[in-house]
Specification:
The complex is a heterodimer of chains A (about 375) and B (about 425). Helix content of chain A is about 20%, strand content about 25%. Chain A has 8 helices and 26 strands. In chain A, strand 2 and strand 3 form a beta hairpin. Chain A starts with a strand and ends in a 6-residue tail after the last strand. Chain B is α/β, with parallel strands linked by helices. Chain B is built from 10 helices and 30 strands. In chain B, a hairpin with a 3-residue loop joins strand 2 and strand 3. The longest helix of chain B is centred in the middle third of the chain and has 13 residues. The chains are: A alpha/beta (about 375), B alpha/beta (about 425).
């Protein structure tokens, strides 16, 4: 059955930043689970739900995002009709600043699509689910928009979107970044809305000079519009901070969560890198509870960790409770615990980096330690 | 179509009968190799890395899996507006064309395809060799020598020379004599089955060969000896580096093991000469809390909870806790249950080895029902794709277990339908 919806992915978020890790990239381009980026889950969910036209709204630093998406071929979005649309901000020719709002380029993208509905997704969560039931529920409920929520308890401190529902299942209260929310229910950054209503809201935002087009800005219309809420039943990994990124990464080591996240029926697609198979060398240390990727060469001891493509772990090195991005080199004898190391960084001979549970050390991209 | 100066034709239609049950349902070039690859990834990647943009793949035997693996050639950057990959099966015409009778006949039947690119040079490749080679260097040598045909050769140990097609050359590298498997070899330059021809010369030779009713229409047996005899300028191109014909169970196993014993032999980590493959779209591989691994190669979607030593693990493989795998090749989608012990085994795609199955070269009380000494040597045991090996079965080395055994010995082997394979494992 044809899905009468287009996708709109908000690749960055001014409220949600992960320090050194999002300095070189949009949050959607954050590497996740060894060989993916957060946007792979969002794009694959859309494509697996039958959506064939997806726009990706970028704010700044979208180079790594564009490198990753290319023509959209990994997601079968390299199409003659529809396909993948990159929506960078329009730059004001005089001030050289991004123009007044992010909204005009979004309006242009939405207006040129002929689908009746728009699925809008933020890039601060990872899940594997079909959006078809959500779209169908939205159509049946005749609500103005439908938002996904997860019952994951009170989230203390920003960023959060605590919601309360009326007996009809519609949002009657929304508390954004409230430090002591009472509600167990928290909105997930995923909304279904009709194309026409979205265009109207965008035009109003432009007219009022609201600069930030975001999930929050749309949901804040809950008092005058009927915002229906549907519970997400699949496992949800929220990525709001360095600590939650680290926790979400470690959860992928759990077999059940991993199998639900990478279901055979709904594959998560990503750009191919064509690295050689991972090698665990003769006489390596113990390798246990580890997610590792192509191109890795493991000679040392690795435990409770995630290795992205091309990581090298030297002889006698000991890596525990850590996340190493692509092409990180750990020299012989290095000891790491609770560390996140960004792409291409090198930890030289016999270095020791010891973080704490809840407070991982972050080493930025291209660093030499 | 726009001109292409060089085009490549890959002969991928052979059955590969010496691989037995591994090629019962798939053509040899589609057989998995080296954890992430299929054999045909090597010639296809060599083409794209050599800058050759038009590649014909000649298929005949069991082409379904090979065709769907190659698809539109995207994985090798060979989905192009001008050129790209073409799957070329035999076809019918008004004059009654037929199956490809031999390697030369396969090219003969595709003369119109080659003509459409107006190439100066045509490279003929086999779909069953593991090597990395810059074909343009061979073309350059062909041009430098003023050759009409150039044959890639590799030095083989003298004691093995009588197993190969041997080229006897003069001091300039021009071939004066070709001997197929000579008893007393005069040289140790063996043909690699990789040829470069000037297209106008080859075109003429193929038409002449087709008109000869006594010819087997084979490059090695007829066309090349004929050209040497007729005085054409046929030269060798000496290749140095890793090259392996993986036509037998032993050579397939050895070549896989070479990746572990000396990864520098065919350096797959060389980013300057990437071997491309179809991406299985699965998550990273996982080593469980009790896993014990050492000297292995492994790729996407596999999960190891047990022990693996000196083993090639392909994608989507599961080894349960308590299983012990040594010196083996686990092909894509294979599943090894707890307590199974496999040594020197090749487990075909999507085959499930149940609990406490034991298959080792000298298995005490092992069944010898499946022994196939003709194809399996050195204690290597092969399981066909899409089987279930029943719980507790014990098997001696040199066995080859196929779908026909499932009918004869249902207590040990069961066959499962293989229709799901392409979706799940590809």
């Amino acid at each position: 059955m044809i899905t009468d919806a287009m996708g709109l992915i908000l690749a960055d978020n001014r409220r949600i930043q992960l320090g050194a890790l999002t300095r070189p990239r949009a949050i959607a381009a954050m590497p996740f689970a060894g060989r993916f980026r957060i946007i792979d889950f969002t794009l694959s969910n859309m494509v697996n739900s039958g959506i064939k036209r997806v726009g990706v709204v970028a704010l700044t630093k979208y180079k790594s995002l564009m490198d990753h998406m290319g023509t959209g071929a990994p997601w079968d979005l390299d199409r003659m009709r529809q396909g993948l649309y990159m929506i960078p901000p329009y730059i004001n020719p005089i001030t050289r600043e991004p123009d007044r709002t992010d909204a005009q380029s979004v309006i242009d993208y939405v207006e040129t699509g002929d689908q009746k509905y728009v699925v809008i997704s933020s890039s601060d969560f990872v899940t594997n689910t079909s959006y078809k039931p959500l779209i169908n529920a939205h159509i049946e409920s005749r609500a103005d928009m439908t938002v996904l929520y997860h019952e994951d308890g009170p989230i203390e401190g920003p960023p959060s979107m605590a919601i309360e529902l009326d007996e009809g299942g519609c949002v009657r209260d929304l508390m954004v970044d409230f430090p002591r929310p009472a509600s167990q229910k928290n909105a997930v950054g995923l909304i279904v809305i009709s194309r026409d209503l979205l265009l109207q809201l965008l035009a109003e935002m432009m007219a009022r000079g609201i600069a930030d087009f975001s999930i929050v800005a749309i949901l804040q219309n809950y008092k005058r519009l009927r915002v229906h809420a549907i519970e997400l039943e699949a496992p949800l990994l929220r990525i709001h901070s360095v600590a939650s990124y680290f926790d979400a990464s470690m959860k992928v080591l759990d077999r059940d969560i991993r199998h639900m996240l990478f279901s055979v029926d709904r594959p998560i697609y990503t750009k191919a890198k064509n690295r050689a198979p991972c090698i665990v060398a003769p006489g390596s240390g113990i390798v246990k509870n580890v997610l590792a990727s192509d191109g890795c060469a493991i000679m040392g001891h690795v435990e409770n960790s995630i290795l992205f493509r091309g990581c090298v772990i030297g002889r006698g090195a000991r890596v525990t409770n850590s996340v190493l991005f692509q092409d990180v080199q750990i020299s012989d004898g290095v000891v790491l615990d609770h560390v996140i190391i960004d792409k291409n960084s090198v930890v030289k001979m016999d270095g020791r980096l010891l973080g704490q549970p809840g407070f991982p050390i972050v080493i930025e991209k291209n660093a030499i330690v | 179509m726009a001109k292409q100066e060089v085009i490549a034709m890959i002969l991928a239609g052979g059955q590969g009968s010496r691989l037995g049950v591994l090629t019962e349902l798939v053509a040899k070039p589609a057989v998995p190799f080296g954890s992430r690859y299929r054999i045909i990834d090597f010639p296809l990647s060599n083409c794209t890395n050599s800058g050759i943009e038009a590649v014909g793949v000649l298929t005949q035997y069991q082409p379904l899996e090979l065709n769907s693996y190659i698809g539109n050639g995207h994985s090798w950057d060979l989905d192009r507006n001008n050129g790209g990959t073409y799957i070329l099966p035999p076809y019918l015409s008004q004059v009654g064309n037929d199956w490809y009778k031999g390697t030369a006949n396969a090219i003969y039947q595709n003369i119109p395809f080659i003509d459409s690119y107006e190439p100066k040079y045509v490279i003929i490749l086999s779909g069953d060799h593991i090597y990395k080679m810059d074909y343009l260097k061979m073309v350059e040598s062909h041009i430098r020598n003023g050759a009409e045909a150039t044959i890639a050769v590799i030095e083989v140990p003298w004691e093995e020379a009588s197993r190969f097609g041997i080229m006897n050359t003069d001091e300039t590298g021009r071939i004066i004599e070709f001997e197929e498997k000579p008893d007393v070899p005069k040289s140790n330059l063996a043909s690699m089955g990789i040829y470069c021809f000037s297209w106008d010369v080859l075109r003429e030779a193929l038409i002449k060969d087709e008109a000869n009713p006594d010819s087997r229409n084979d490059f090695g047996a007829n066309v090349i000896p004929g050209m040497i005899e007729a005085g054409y300028a046929v030269y060798t191109y000496a290749f140095e580096g890793y090259w392996k014909d993986v036509g037998t169970i032993s050579s397939l196993w050895e070549s896989n093991m070479d990746l572990l014993t000396d990864p520098s032999l065919i350096n797959l980590r060389d980013l300057g000469w990437t071997i491309y493959s179809r991406n299985p779209q699965r998550p990273s591989h996982y080593f469980g809390p009790e896993s014990n691994v050492d000297n292995i190669a492994i790729t996407d979607g596999s999960e190891i909870f047990g022990e693996c030593h000196s083993t090639i693990v392909s994608y989507n493989v599961v080894v349960e806790e308590g299983a012990v795998i040594t010196d083996s090749i686990l092909m894509p989608g294979s599943y090894i249950e707890a307590g199974a012990v496999l040594t020197r085994c090749i487990v075909g795609m999507d085959t499930r080895v149940e609990r406490n199955v034991r298959a080792t070269p000298d298995e005490a009380d092992g069944l010898d029902l499946f022994v196939n000494d003709k194809l399996c040597k050195d204690g290597i045991t092969v399981f066909a794709p899409n089987l279930v090996i029943k719980e507790g079965t014990k098997i001696v080395g040199n066995s080859m277990i196929g779908a026909d055994h499932a009918r004869k010995y249902p207590q040990y082997v069961e066959e499962v339908p293989h229709y799901s394979r392409m979706e799940v494992s590809l």
